[in-house]
User: Fold Dehydratase from Ramlibacter pinisoli.
Amino acid sequence: MIQLPYGELAIGQKARSRGRTITETDVVNFCGLTGNWLAIHADAEYAKKSLYGQRVVQGGLVFVVANALFGFEPAVVEAFYGVDKLRFLKPTFIGDTLHAESEVIALRDKGERHGIATTRLTAVNQRDETVLSCEFSLLIRRERLPAE
Assistant:
């Protein structure tokens, strides 16, 4: 998502990630990790009778996969700073393949050594449907850490 030091970023810079298919294993592991065993995620028979006719992937899982698809450059990314305007626009299903898109929409100074970069982050499925949208902010170093 952000691979450059703060001073090299500009409003409008865009990136697109690789794709990743959401699997049954992902959903079950996320249920176990979070305790979110809601029937719409974990019970195939219940989900058949739901609005979508099948299990829906947890929104939290979609969010963490979408932002992680870019990876983080530890030499420039200091920390996750926050998320705003998070919306799940369409459901994600087991077997969907997502990619993420980001565009730098705001930059602001944060002390002498950092700035905050905010991107519009979207997750898009194989049907070209945007399933998630948010404003994703990172604390970015002004200078890249030296290689070790």
Summary: Helices lie at 24-34, 39-42, 44-48, 59-68.
